[in-house]
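Q: Got a minute? One more chain.
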Amino acid sequence: MPPLVPVPGRPLRRAALLRVGRLAAGLLAVALLGGCTALPEFAERGSGQWRPKPEIGPQADLQPQVPRDPGFPGGAPDSAPGQPEGCDDPDPAVVATCLAPVSAITVLPGGRSALVAERTTGRILRVERGVAPVEIATLAVDAAGDGGLTGLALSPSYVEDELIFAYVTTSTGNEVVRLAPGDRPKPVLTGIPRGASGNAGALGLDGTGTLLIATGDGGDPAAGADPGSLAGKVLRVNTSGAPAASNPDPGSPVVASGLRAPGGLCTDPLTGTSWVTDTDTGGDVLRRVVPGQPFDAPAWTWRDRPGAAGCVVAQGQVQVALTDRAAMFVLGLGPDEQFVGEPRTVPLEHYGRVSAAAIGPGSAVVWLGTVNTEGDAPIASDERVFQLFELAGGGSQD
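A: Always. Here it is, folded:
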C-alpha cells in the first residue's frame, strides 16, 4: 500500500482516513503485543527500592520456564509434563533422575552437561539430557551429621587439566580433595574440624579464579570466631591449597569468619562479590562476604527457616534455593550490593525439595538438584537434576 501524504489545502477522503485508522490500529496492536510478552525484571542497579535492613517481605509467585534450545523443539511445553514412572521422566526440564540426594552441582564448559555430587554415596556423576549418568568417581565419605560429599568446583583451567575439587567429610574430619582423570583423590586442604553437626561445606571460584571454601562450625559455634580454627570460615586458596596472595592475611587462608552451617556459596561474575547461605539464631540468612571482616548482620533473613541452600548470581539477581519451601527466592541487586525491588518466589512444588544450584559462565540456565528423600514426603522419581531457563513474571504481590 503506498503511503498516504496529505496535500496542502485538500482534505483526505473518507477511504483514505479509514486506511490511516486501520494502519494506526495495527501498529497499536503490535506495540501492545510486544509489551505483553516482555518479561518483568528487577530495576537496573542504580534505581529501585532500597532495603538497608532486609527481612522476608512481600512476594509474588513466578512461573519457571524450561530451556529453549535445540533440545526443546518449539520451546517450552504447552502443558504440564506427566508424572515420572520409575527412572523415566517425561519432563523436558529434567536432565537426570533416580539419584541419591544431590548436594552440589557444577556446570561443565559448553553448558550441556554438569557434574553432580551425591552427599550420602560420595559419587560424582556426569549428567546430560538424553544420556545415562556416567560415574566419574566415588569418594569415601562419612555422611553423619549433615556431612558427606557436599561441595564441587572445577579448576580455573579445567579445559586443560580437567581437575575437580570436592568438599568431603571423612571419619576424622572435613577436607578438600583434588581429582585428576585416572588418578586417586589427593588432599588439598585438611584439618577442618568435624562434629555431630555443622560438617557440610561449599566450594566455588571467586572472580579471579581462586578457590573459595565455606566451612561449617562442626557443631561448635565458638569455632567460627576462633582465628586458629578453619571451622565456620570462608577460606580462599590456590589450587595447591596455599593461601591466596590477595587474602587479608597472606599467610592465612581465612577471608571471613562466623559461619555456622553454610548451604551454598556463589559469586557475582560482574563484581566478584561472594555470597553464602547460612543459619543463625534469628533464622536462615544470606551473608555477603567482605574479605577481612567477620560476618555481622546478615544481608537477608528468612525468619521462618525455609532451608536456604544453594545459590547463584545471574542477571543482577541473587537466586537462592529454599529446600523446605520447594522454591527459588530471587533478590535484585543494586549499587554497593544493596537489594532493590521486591523479592520474588519461584514455586517448584513439582520437583520437591530443591537444594543444590549452579549456573554456567555467561549462561541464563540454572541447574537445580533435589533432596526429597531427606524430607517427610518423598515424591516419585527421587532424586532429580533439572533446569530453569528464565524466571517469567506473573501474579500479584502477596
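A: The CA atoms of residues 358 and 367 lie 5 Å apart.
Q: Perfect, thanks.
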